Amino acid sequence: MVSQKHIVMYIATSMDGYIAREDGSIDWLEETEGAGDNGYGDFFKNIDTVIMGNKTYQQIHTLAEEFPYQEKTCYVFSRSAKGKDEHVEFVNEDVGDFIGNLKGDSRIWLVGGAELVSEFMRKQLVDEMILSIIPTVLGKGISLFQAGNPEVKLKLTNIQQYGQIAQLHDQREK
Description:
The chain has 174 residues and is an alpha/beta fold.
């Protein structure tokens, strides 16, 4: 039996498509009124594996006292870090090769950042996108979708409102 991997990009973005300010800060996210946990709890309990880039991993350490994904298998793509630390295993290989070699069935959360999202998009590995649209126009910053990504056809499967946040749920058409 062939193993199944389902990769979900679950991320917040400004109205104009930025995931962070130019300096990487995400302070603007906290200024928006949501409702409850904005659907995060239900999403989180249905994933097995967390994947992120090294910049995102480093930023998590500045935002949280405790690593928030301790009960999940976590991988961090990095050009420099190698091996493991107490929370994650560092990955220094092609995203397609890594996903292809990942054992077993899993529902994978692609946390970010933008460079890693682009690598997954170029390899057409993202199966589902859950975008939380924050009603803020930043004007400039780190764009979620970088130039050079392939065209991807999506099917909108759900729209949910959490306070002032609109969450779009899309599946990639295959």
